[in-house]
Write a structure and sequence with these properties.
Strand content: 15-25%
Number of domains: 3
Strand order of the largest sheet: 1-2-3-4-6-5
Structural class: alpha+beta
Shape: globular
Number of helices: 15
Largest sheet: 6 strands, antiparallel
Number of strands: 26
Distance between the termini: 37 Å
Radius of gyration: 25 Å
Length: about 600
């Protein structure tokens, strides 16, 4: 796959559009803030040309986005301002620049009442009804793809890169169309299970799917006081267990509004409003209710305030505004959720089976320190725009400095001699019988041999930070889907022995465009060593399995030094091994802890 990695410096002129700065950089396009005639716009530049041989069909998708956006004219839909080609042949699309908050950010800042939420959703649904009359489906509705403009507080639907229309060609390789798993209707996952052996089967996205996504957005605003905070959440589209009624999750939600949200999120599409115009009318009817519960904030402002982290606790991480990526460290250090719902979609091509979503997924929550306070955030040189962020895991004071793009911090090579490696897949030296009789934590305290399971502090190999930043273009804020051990499948629960060595791999079927660009399927993580943290997590897992990889081999590139860590909950501990899902998430770091 040939990439045209165009990066336009400030001051570049494209057909009269003056580039001010880069706004966003994804796997399929780069978005810039541009000016023309004293006004600001957003310019979206495709990463690939028509003749690039792009597997993701980036050019074709942007051509479809262009055809859709030029056909729409609605005050609550981002508007088209121009298009063309740069000298390399890459297509660009100029859009209205919406200076605003995402829907989740607006909720936290405004502390809206039920009436105010209804007014916003009436306009969103009105825009969708207009689109649907023209045969256009957005297919990626979520809180991050609706902006509330700061100047007039109007909602604007943005990002039509996943949109389609009645006559559009099918550009999807997998069973499901592009989108965000949390907002998918449950019947999409039923389709995957029913057609798991049919590689050419394609789900036909319907208006009912769009309505479910609206219901998911509404439910999150009604029940989640801090929707932008990145943390583990219960699924909304479990095939068997529906989410709790909004009023049960938040007693301040008016009963009629809770009932409407419940019907929109029904497992049965026939129980949802028949189309978006009907949904709009139901929302308007609720807006006319003068009850006091409609005029009070849905959440007390004190609940929505981002609290300061307690001593030893990592700060909350904001939810990304772009297309969702695998969860970050802490809130999503758990592959269990990914295996339940996300893996069924992202790993469509890997396995012939798609498991039902888990009823009670075990995920690692935002960590709370159990011992001494954590170290203060790392300071950096004055010429850097921000300090290297610190995150930490369940076990308390174990922060890992996450790599930031543009960082000038270069760790020194480790001075401590390397320990002798245990062969791949082998267990660490066996424990004496007296130690085996002890619980793992007690064996650790007793100093039994063969139980050095906790990861020792390490620094990155020489050149790793530079390689991750410059050669691989990894950011510290991103994470990747990965199989811990490349010899086993994503759905397998494996026993990982402390001290054993594994080779990780990115599986086939990863849908995230950013990952497909910088860590595509087939990327192998080498030098992996398994560790255990035998301390119970707040959600009940008896411990955590941690794997540190020190090299990577991306297809088409030379082997490079890296610092890449996997941290996932252990379902069970036995001797010096932990049982966990093989399919999980990993991320680049600069040191441990």
């Amino acid at each position: 796959m040939t990439l045209n990695l165009i990066r336009l410096p400030s001051g570049t002129l494209i057909d009269g559009w003056h580039v001010v700065k880069e706004l966003g950089n994804g796997g399929s396009a780069v978005v810039y803030l541009v000016e023309k005639n004293g006004k600001q716009y957003a310019l979206k530049l495709a990463r690939h040309r028509d003749a690039s041989g792009d597997e993701m069909q980036t050019h074709a998708r942007m051509m479809r986005e262009l055809s859709i956006i030029t056909s729409l004219s609605h005050p609550n839909i981002v508007s088209h301002r121009g298009s063309g080609y740069v000298e390399t042949g890459n297509l660009y699309l100029v859009l209205e620049y919406v200076d605003g908050w995402t829907l989740g950010e607006w909720k936290e800042r405004k502390h809206p009442t039920a009436h105010e939420i209804l007014r916003v959703f009436i306009k969103i649904v009105s825009a969708l009804a207009y689109m649907h009359r023209l045969g256009v489906l957005h297919r990626d509705l979520k809180l991050a793809n609706v902006l509330i403009r700061k100047s007039d507080r109007e909602p604007v639907i943005v990002d039509f890169s996943s949109a389609t229309h009645a006559l559009a060609d099918d550009l999807t390789d997998g069973g499901l169309p592009p989108g965000t798993d949390r907002y998918r209707a449950p019947e999409q996952f039923s389709f995957l299970r029913e057609h798991k052996d049919e590689r050419r089967a394609r789900y036909a996205f319907q208006v009912a799917d769009e309505i479910f996504a609206v219901g998911a957005m509404l439910y999150e605003l009604l029940t989640d006081p801090r929707p932008t905070e990145y943390r583990a959440r219960s699924p909304l589209n479990d095939l068997t267990i529906p989410p709790a009624p909004a009023r049960k999750a938040n007693p301040r939600v008016p009963e009629a509004l809770s009932d409407l949200a419940e019907s929109i999120l029904s497992r049965d599409p026939a129980r949802r409003p028949v189309d978006t115009e009907v949904l709009r009318r139901e929302l308007v009817e609720l807006l006319e209710d003068p009850g006091a519960d409609y005029t009070a904030p849905v959440h007390p402002p004190s609940e929505q305030r981002q609290r300061e982290p307690s001593e030893g606790e990592a700060p909350a991480m904001p939810e990304p505004a772009s297309k969702p990526r695998p969860h970050r460290r802490g809130a999503l250090a758990a592959g269990a959720v990914a295996v339940g719902l996300t893996a069924g979609v992202a790993l469509w091509g890997l396995s012939g089976t798609v498991p039902a979503p888990p009823v009670e997924p075990h995920v690692a929550p935002r960590p709370v320190a159990s011992r001494a306070p954590s170290a203060s955030p790392k300071t950096v040189s004055p010429d850097m725009s921000a300090p290297t962020p610190i995150v930490q895991g369940d076990a308390g004071p174990s922060p890992a400095a996450v790599l930031e793009e543009g960082s000038t911090v270069k760790p020194q090579p480790p001075e401590a001699p390397k320990q002798a490696r245990t062969g791949r897949g082998q267990k660490a030296p066996p424990m004496p019988d007296v130690c085996k009789a002890l619980p793992l934590v007690a064996a650790l305290a007793a100093g039994c041999p063969g139980v050095q399971v906790r990861p020792e502090p390490f620094e990155c190999p020489s050149g790793a930070v530079q390689a991750m930043r410059e050669e691989l273009r990894w950011r510290g804020s991103e994470s990747f889907s990965v199989l811990i051990d490349d010899r086993h499948g994503v759905h397998e629960r494996l026993w990982f022995s402390a001290g054993s060595e594994v080779v990780g791999v990115v599986p086939k079927g990863v849908n995230d465009s950013r990952q497909r660009e910088v860590a595509p399927p087939g990327t192998r993580f080498l030098g992996g060593k398994v560790y255990l943290i035998p301390e119970r997590t707040p959600l009940g897992s008896p411990g955590r399995v941690i794997v540190k990889y020190d090299r990577v081999k991306v297809p088409g590139k030379d082997e490079l030094p890296v610092c890449f860590v996997v941290d996932t909950p252990a379902e069970e501990l036995k001797d010096t091994a932990g049982r966990a899902f093989n399919g999980t998430i990993g991320w680049p770091v600069t040191e441990w802890p």
